[in-house]
Protein backbone atom coordinates (compact mmCIF):
# COMPACT_ATOMS: atom_id res chain seq x y z
CA UNK A 1 0.00 0.00 0.00
CA UNK A 2 3.03 2.22 -0.45
CA UNK A 3 2.92 5.51 1.41
CA UNK A 4 -0.24 4.66 3.40
CA UNK A 5 -0.26 2.44 6.49
CA UNK A 6 -3.48 1.09 8.01
CA UNK A 7 -3.81 0.03 11.65
CA UNK A 8 -6.79 -2.30 12.06
CA UNK A 9 -6.28 -3.46 15.66
CA UNK A 10 -6.40 -1.88 19.11
CA UNK A 11 -3.02 -0.93 20.48
CA UNK A 12 -0.47 1.81 21.10
CA UNK A 13 1.49 3.75 18.48
CA UNK A 14 4.77 5.25 19.69
CA UNK A 15 8.10 6.58 18.46
CA UNK A 16 10.94 4.10 18.72
CA UNK A 17 14.26 5.77 17.84
CA UNK A 18 13.75 6.97 14.24
CA UNK A 19 10.90 4.61 13.48
CA UNK A 20 7.29 4.02 14.47
CA UNK A 21 6.29 1.14 16.70
CA UNK A 22 2.78 -0.27 17.00
CA UNK A 23 2.34 -2.45 20.07
CA UNK A 24 -0.56 -4.90 20.27
CA UNK A 25 -1.07 -7.99 22.41
CA UNK A 26 2.44 -7.63 23.84
CA UNK A 27 4.11 -7.66 20.41
CA UNK A 28 5.80 -4.83 18.50
CA UNK A 29 5.22 -4.10 14.81
CA UNK A 30 7.63 -1.56 13.32
CA UNK A 31 6.57 0.92 10.64
CA UNK A 32 9.40 2.50 8.63
CA UNK A 33 9.22 6.29 8.54
CA UNK A 34 10.97 6.78 5.18
CA UNK A 35 8.17 5.86 2.76
CA UNK A 36 5.16 6.53 5.01
CA UNK A 37 3.12 9.67 4.30
CA UNK A 38 -0.13 8.92 6.13
CA UNK A 39 -1.48 6.52 8.74
CA UNK A 40 -5.09 5.36 9.19
CA UNK A 41 -6.15 4.28 12.69
CA UNK A 42 -9.25 2.17 12.10
CA UNK A 43 -9.52 1.05 15.72
CA UNK A 44 -8.78 2.44 19.19
CA UNK A 45 -5.12 3.49 19.07
CA UNK A 46 -3.28 5.30 21.86
CA UNK A 47 -0.75 8.02 20.93
CA UNK A 48 1.28 10.57 22.88
CA UNK A 49 2.72 14.04 22.25
CA UNK A 50 6.21 12.64 21.62
CA UNK A 51 4.82 10.65 18.70
CA UNK A 52 2.86 13.61 17.32
CA UNK A 53 5.97 15.80 17.45
CA UNK A 54 7.88 13.12 15.53
CA UNK A 55 5.11 12.86 12.92
CA UNK A 56 5.15 16.64 12.57
CA UNK A 57 8.89 16.69 11.93
CA UNK A 58 8.35 14.22 9.09
CA UNK A 59 5.27 15.95 7.58
CA UNK A 60 3.21 12.83 8.24
CA UNK A 61 -0.60 12.88 8.46
CA UNK A 62 -2.57 10.55 10.76
CA UNK A 63 -6.33 9.95 10.50
CA UNK A 64 -8.52 8.59 13.31
CA UNK A 65 -11.79 6.66 12.92
CA UNK A 66 -14.46 5.82 15.47
CA UNK A 67 -16.26 2.57 16.28
CA UNK A 68 -18.75 3.08 13.46
CA UNK A 69 -15.91 3.37 10.92
CA UNK A 70 -16.68 7.07 10.70
CA UNK A 71 -14.10 9.83 10.53
CA UNK A 72 -13.12 11.28 13.93
CA UNK A 73 -10.36 13.68 12.94
CA UNK A 74 -6.93 14.24 11.47
CA UNK A 75 -3.62 15.30 12.92
CA UNK A 76 -1.37 16.98 10.46
CA UNK A 77 1.74 19.09 11.07
CA UNK A 78 1.55 22.85 11.33
CA UNK A 79 0.75 24.47 8.00
CA UNK A 80 4.11 23.92 6.36
CA UNK A 81 2.68 24.77 2.94
CA UNK A 82 0.86 27.97 3.93
CA UNK A 83 0.65 30.83 1.43
CA UNK A 84 -0.80 34.16 2.49
CA UNK A 85 -1.15 35.30 -1.13
CA UNK A 86 -3.17 32.24 -2.12
CA UNK A 87 -5.31 32.46 1.01
CA UNK A 88 -6.35 36.04 0.15
CA UNK A 89 -7.11 35.07 -3.44
CA UNK A 90 -9.01 31.95 -2.34
CA UNK A 91 -11.28 34.10 -0.16
CA UNK A 92 -11.82 36.56 -3.02
CA UNK A 93 -12.64 33.67 -5.36
CA UNK A 94 -15.19 32.40 -2.86
CA UNK A 95 -16.81 35.85 -2.82
CA UNK A 96 -16.75 36.44 -6.59
CA UNK A 97 -16.75 33.08 -8.38
CA UNK A 98 -18.14 30.54 -5.93
CA UNK A 99 -20.95 29.36 -8.21
CA UNK A 100 -18.60 28.83 -11.19
CA UNK A 101 -16.55 26.34 -9.20
CA UNK A 102 -19.57 24.75 -7.50
CA UNK A 103 -21.33 24.20 -10.85
CA UNK A 104 -18.17 22.66 -12.34
CA UNK A 105 -18.01 20.19 -9.44
CA UNK A 106 -21.67 19.15 -9.68
CA UNK A 107 -21.48 18.79 -13.47
CA UNK A 108 -18.35 16.67 -12.99
CA UNK A 109 -20.22 14.36 -10.62
CA UNK A 110 -22.95 13.80 -13.23
CA UNK A 111 -20.43 13.09 -16.01
CA UNK A 112 -18.59 10.51 -13.92
CA UNK A 113 -21.82 8.84 -12.77
CA UNK A 114 -22.99 8.44 -16.36
CA UNK A 115 -19.62 6.97 -17.39
CA UNK A 116 -19.79 4.39 -14.60
CA UNK A 117 -23.32 3.42 -15.61
CA UNK A 118 -22.39 3.28 -19.30
CA UNK A 119 -20.04 0.41 -18.48
CA UNK A 120 -23.04 -1.62 -17.34
CA UNK A 121 -25.16 -0.45 -20.28
CA UNK A 122 -22.49 -1.84 -22.62
CA UNK A 123 -22.65 -5.14 -20.72
CA UNK A 124 -26.32 -5.63 -21.48
CA UNK A 125 -27.81 -3.77 -18.49
CA UNK A 126 -30.06 -1.67 -20.71
CA UNK A 127 -32.26 -0.67 -17.76
CA UNK A 128 -29.72 2.00 -16.75
CA UNK A 129 -30.21 3.95 -20.00
CA UNK A 130 -32.93 6.24 -18.64
CA UNK A 131 -30.66 7.38 -15.82
CA UNK A 132 -27.73 7.89 -18.21
CA UNK A 133 -29.94 10.00 -20.49
CA UNK A 134 -31.17 12.09 -17.55
CA UNK A 135 -27.59 12.67 -16.32
CA UNK A 136 -26.43 13.72 -19.78
CA UNK A 137 -29.37 15.89 -20.83
CA UNK A 138 -31.62 17.13 -18.06
CA UNK A 139 -29.13 17.27 -15.19
CA UNK A 140 -26.64 19.74 -16.81
CA UNK A 141 -29.45 22.17 -17.71
CA UNK A 142 -30.70 22.12 -14.11
CA UNK A 143 -27.20 22.77 -12.81
CA UNK A 144 -26.79 25.66 -15.24
CA UNK A 145 -29.94 27.43 -13.97
CA UNK A 146 -29.00 27.24 -10.28
CA UNK A 147 -28.28 30.56 -8.57
CA UNK A 148 -27.38 29.34 -5.06
CA UNK A 149 -25.16 26.52 -3.73
CA UNK A 150 -28.16 25.08 -1.89
CA UNK A 151 -29.92 24.52 -5.22
CA UNK A 152 -26.86 22.73 -6.57
CA UNK A 153 -26.73 20.51 -3.50
CA UNK A 154 -30.39 19.61 -4.05
CA UNK A 155 -29.78 18.74 -7.71
CA UNK A 156 -26.72 16.73 -6.72
CA UNK A 157 -28.84 14.83 -4.19
CA UNK A 158 -31.37 14.02 -6.90
CA UNK A 159 -28.58 12.71 -9.14
CA UNK A 160 -27.26 10.45 -6.39
CA UNK A 161 -30.77 9.18 -5.73
CA UNK A 162 -31.21 8.19 -9.37
CA UNK A 163 -27.73 6.64 -9.37
CA UNK A 164 -28.61 4.52 -6.30
CA UNK A 165 -31.81 3.47 -8.04
CA UNK A 166 -29.82 1.67 -10.75
CA UNK A 167 -27.98 -0.64 -8.33
CA UNK A 168 -30.75 -3.23 -8.48
CA UNK A 169 -29.92 -3.85 -12.15
CA UNK A 170 -26.30 -4.96 -11.64
CA UNK A 171 -25.76 -5.88 -7.97
CA UNK A 172 -26.82 -9.08 -6.17
CA UNK A 173 -30.12 -8.89 -4.32
CA UNK A 174 -28.56 -8.93 -0.83
CA UNK A 175 -26.64 -5.75 -1.67
CA UNK A 176 -29.60 -3.71 -2.91
CA UNK A 177 -30.07 -0.38 -1.13
CA UNK A 178 -33.52 0.98 -0.33
CA UNK A 179 -32.20 4.40 0.69
CA UNK A 180 -28.95 6.06 1.70
CA UNK A 181 -28.40 5.86 5.47
CA UNK A 182 -25.15 7.27 6.86
CA UNK A 183 -24.84 7.54 10.65
CA UNK A 184 -24.67 4.69 11.30
CA UNK A 185 -25.14 2.73 8.05
CA UNK A 186 -27.96 0.19 8.25
CA UNK A 187 -27.08 -2.39 5.58
CA UNK A 188 -24.00 -3.76 3.75
CA UNK A 189 -24.11 -1.38 0.76
CA UNK A 190 -24.53 1.66 3.02
CA UNK A 191 -21.68 0.40 5.20
CA UNK A 192 -19.32 0.23 2.22
CA UNK A 193 -20.41 3.60 0.82
CA UNK A 194 -19.87 5.33 4.18
CA UNK A 195 -16.49 3.67 4.72
CA UNK A 196 -15.32 4.31 1.15
CA UNK A 197 -16.46 7.93 1.14
CA UNK A 198 -14.63 8.55 4.40
CA UNK A 199 -11.42 6.98 3.09
CA UNK A 200 -11.63 9.16 -0.02
CA UNK A 201 -12.36 12.26 2.06
CA UNK A 202 -9.26 11.69 4.17
CA UNK A 203 -7.13 10.96 1.09
CA UNK A 204 -8.25 14.36 -0.19
CA UNK A 205 -7.35 16.02 3.12
CA UNK A 206 -3.82 14.65 2.71
CA UNK A 207 -3.63 15.83 -0.91
CA UNK A 208 -4.82 19.35 -0.08
CA UNK A 209 -2.42 19.55 2.88
CA UNK A 210 0.49 19.20 0.44
CA UNK A 211 -0.68 22.21 -1.60
CA UNK A 212 -1.08 25.88 -0.61
CA UNK A 213 -4.89 25.68 -0.53
CA UNK A 214 -6.78 26.38 2.69
CA UNK A 215 -8.87 23.38 3.76
CA UNK A 216 -11.56 25.56 5.35
CA UNK A 217 -12.61 27.62 2.32
CA UNK A 218 -14.90 25.56 0.09
CA UNK A 219 -17.19 26.41 -2.79
CA UNK A 220 -19.96 23.81 -3.14
CA UNK A 221 -20.24 22.88 0.54
CA UNK A 222 -20.71 25.62 3.10
CA UNK A 223 -17.40 26.47 4.80
CA UNK A 224 -19.19 26.54 8.16
CA UNK A 225 -20.27 22.90 7.88
CA UNK A 226 -16.90 21.32 8.53
CA UNK A 227 -13.36 22.43 9.08
CA UNK A 228 -12.12 20.50 6.06
CA UNK A 229 -15.02 21.41 3.77
CA UNK A 230 -12.77 21.91 0.73
CA UNK A 231 -11.96 18.20 0.94
CA UNK A 232 -15.68 17.49 0.55
CA UNK A 233 -15.66 19.60 -2.63
CA UNK A 234 -12.59 18.06 -4.24
CA UNK A 235 -13.51 14.46 -3.39
CA UNK A 236 -17.07 14.60 -4.80
CA UNK A 237 -16.24 13.96 -8.48
CA UNK A 238 -13.99 11.04 -7.54
CA UNK A 239 -16.66 9.14 -5.57
CA UNK A 240 -18.19 7.37 -8.61
CA UNK A 241 -14.74 6.58 -10.00
CA UNK A 242 -12.96 5.39 -6.87
CA UNK A 243 -15.49 4.48 -4.16
CA UNK A 244 -18.33 3.04 -6.24
CA UNK A 245 -16.13 1.22 -8.73
CA UNK A 246 -14.37 -0.41 -5.79
CA UNK A 247 -17.69 -1.45 -4.25
CA UNK A 248 -19.18 -2.79 -7.48
CA UNK A 249 -16.12 -4.91 -8.28
CA UNK A 250 -15.84 -6.31 -4.75
CA UNK A 251 -19.52 -7.26 -4.67
CA UNK A 252 -19.89 -8.59 -8.20
CA UNK A 253 -16.70 -10.65 -7.90
CA UNK A 254 -17.97 -11.96 -4.54
CA UNK A 255 -14.84 -10.84 -2.71
CA UNK A 256 -17.14 -9.30 -0.11
CA UNK A 257 -20.12 -11.34 1.06
CA UNK A 258 -22.91 -10.38 3.43
CA UNK A 259 -22.64 -13.45 5.67
CA UNK A 260 -18.82 -13.36 5.95
CA UNK A 261 -17.67 -9.75 6.02
CA UNK A 262 -20.27 -7.68 7.88
CA UNK A 263 -21.37 -7.28 11.50
CA UNK A 264 -25.12 -6.66 11.62
CA UNK A 265 -26.63 -5.29 14.82
CA UNK A 266 -30.15 -4.11 15.59
CA UNK A 267 -29.93 -0.71 13.89
CA UNK A 268 -26.58 -0.64 12.11
CA UNK A 269 -24.26 -2.64 9.87
CA UNK A 270 -20.46 -2.42 9.62
CA UNK A 271 -17.66 -4.17 7.80
CA UNK A 272 -15.90 -6.60 10.15
CA UNK A 273 -12.10 -6.64 10.41
CA UNK A 274 -11.64 -9.09 7.53
CA UNK A 275 -14.08 -7.07 5.43
CA UNK A 276 -12.21 -3.85 6.16
CA UNK A 277 -8.91 -5.42 5.12
CA UNK A 278 -10.39 -6.58 1.81
CA UNK A 279 -12.02 -3.20 1.19
CA UNK A 280 -8.89 -1.20 2.08
CA UNK A 281 -6.70 -3.35 -0.19
CA UNK A 282 -9.08 -2.88 -3.13
CA UNK A 283 -9.45 0.83 -2.38
CA UNK A 284 -5.68 1.35 -2.36
CA UNK A 285 -5.34 -0.60 -5.61
CA UNK A 286 -7.96 1.69 -7.15
CA UNK A 287 -6.09 4.76 -5.91
CA UNK A 288 -2.92 3.50 -7.57
CA UNK A 289 -4.63 2.50 -10.84
CA UNK A 290 -3.16 4.49 -13.71
CA UNK A 291 -4.74 5.94 -16.85
CA UNK A 292 -3.39 7.92 -19.80
CA UNK A 293 -3.97 11.58 -19.00
CA UNK A 294 -5.21 13.14 -22.23
CA UNK A 295 -3.70 16.56 -21.52
CA UNK A 296 -0.41 15.58 -19.88
CA UNK A 297 0.15 12.71 -22.36
CA UNK A 298 1.45 10.43 -19.64
CA UNK A 299 0.10 7.85 -17.23
CA UNK A 300 -1.07 9.10 -13.85
CA UNK A 301 -2.77 7.40 -10.91
CA UNK A 302 -6.10 8.39 -9.39
CA UNK A 303 -4.14 9.45 -6.30
CA UNK A 304 -2.24 11.90 -8.50
CA UNK A 305 -5.47 12.98 -10.22
CA UNK A 306 -6.82 14.22 -6.87
CA UNK A 307 -3.72 16.34 -6.41
CA UNK A 308 -4.01 17.60 -10.00
CA UNK A 309 -7.56 18.81 -9.27
CA UNK A 310 -6.12 20.82 -6.37
CA UNK A 311 -3.63 22.41 -8.79
CA UNK A 312 -6.43 23.11 -11.29
CA UNK A 313 -8.27 24.99 -8.55
CA UNK A 314 -5.12 26.97 -7.73
CA UNK A 315 -4.77 27.88 -11.42
CA UNK A 316 -8.35 29.16 -11.43
CA UNK A 317 -7.78 31.16 -8.24
CA UNK A 318 -4.50 32.74 -9.34
CA UNK A 319 -4.77 32.85 -13.13
CA UNK A 320 -8.52 32.60 -13.80
CA UNK A 321 -7.96 29.45 -15.87
CA UNK A 322 -11.26 27.57 -16.23
CA UNK A 323 -11.72 24.92 -13.55
CA UNK A 324 -12.72 21.54 -14.95
CA UNK A 325 -12.58 18.74 -12.33
CA UNK A 326 -11.53 15.20 -13.16
CA UNK A 327 -13.54 13.62 -15.96
CA UNK A 328 -13.59 9.87 -16.45
CA UNK A 329 -14.89 10.49 -19.97
CA UNK A 330 -12.04 12.77 -21.02
CA UNK A 331 -9.34 11.36 -18.73
CA UNK A 332 -8.23 14.80 -17.57
UniProtKB/TrEMBL annotation:
It comes from the Bacteria. Keywords: Antiviral defense, DNA-binding, Endonuclease, Hydrolase, Magnesium, Manganese, Metal-binding, Nuclease. Pfam families: Cas_Cas1. InterPro entries: CRISPR-assoc_Cas1, CRISPR-assoc_Cas1_C, CRISPR-assoc_Cas1_HMARI/TNEAP, CRISPR-assoc_Cas1_N. Mn(2+) binds at residues 156, 221, 236. It is an enzyme of class 3 (hydrolase). Its cofactor is Mg(2+); Mn(2+). Its EC number is 3.1.-.-. GO terms for biological process: defense response to virus; maintenance of CRISPR repeat elements. Homodimer, forms a heterotetramer with a Cas2 homodimer. CRISPR (clustered regularly interspaced short palindromic repeat), is an adaptive immune system that provides protection against mobile genetic elements (viruses, transposable elements and conjugative plasmids). CRISPR clusters contain spacers, sequences complementary to antecedent mobile elements, and target invading nucleic acids. CRISPR clusters are transcribed and processed into CRISPR RNA (crRNA). Acts as a dsDNA endonuclease. Involved in the integration of spacer DNA into the CRISPR cassette. Belongs to the CRISPR-associated endonuclease Cas1 family. This is CRISPR-associated endonuclease Cas1. It comes from Eisenbergiella tayi.
Amino acid sequence: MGSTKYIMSMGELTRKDNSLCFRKDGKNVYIPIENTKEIYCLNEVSVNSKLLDFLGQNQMVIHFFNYYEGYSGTFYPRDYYNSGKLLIRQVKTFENSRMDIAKAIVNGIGINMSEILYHYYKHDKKEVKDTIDWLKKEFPSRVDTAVKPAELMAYEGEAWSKFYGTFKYFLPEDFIMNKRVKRPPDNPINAMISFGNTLLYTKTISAIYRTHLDQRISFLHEPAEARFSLSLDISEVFKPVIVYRTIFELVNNRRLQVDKHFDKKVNYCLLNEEGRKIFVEAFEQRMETVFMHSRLKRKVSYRTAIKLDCYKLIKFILEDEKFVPFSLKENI
